[in-house]
Fold this sequence. Notes:
7-stranded mixed sheet, Rossmann fold, 7 strands, alpha/beta
Amino acid sequence: MPNAHDVISNASPWVKRFSPLIPKDGVVLDLACGSGRHSEWLANAGHQVLAVDQNLAALESLNHPLISLQSCDLEQADWPLIGGDFSAIVVTNYLYRPHLDELPKMLQAGGVLIYETFALGNGEFGKPSNPNFLLNPGELLAFAARHELKVVAYEDIYVDEPKPAMVQRLCAVKGELKQRIPLQFQG
């Protein structure tokens, strides 16, 4: 089991880059949180976090007063988080299209969506390779447009780290940004 420092240092550079845009009031949803690396990162930045995953076993060592855990099957017929109200939603390495359109409904005005997952072409490098779990070209941009989210940043690229992969990334806001924080270029 990785220690807390490892979990935090392993947080996605995309999440680290755009987390300063998240309003300090409200709760951040870490959807399909896995090991909790982003929950820990966000809590250490002062955010209340709801970490949701089907299996919370990987979170046993996570002990932070700002993090609440919820075990939840995110792929059941009915969306289990209906009525949620979040200042931000963070999703990495997870895609389940039947409930994707529920995410903007749960964002507060000024809320931030940070999304990063595998894209078409990833099969060349390993798993996931099933198209059901890979974003199509421009899919996150079309999603943002469909829900009138303001796109702050978007990428559909090949990455070397943490392993070779095709990924799509989006940072978008519902309405206007509440916080205007200069972002450093991460080249």
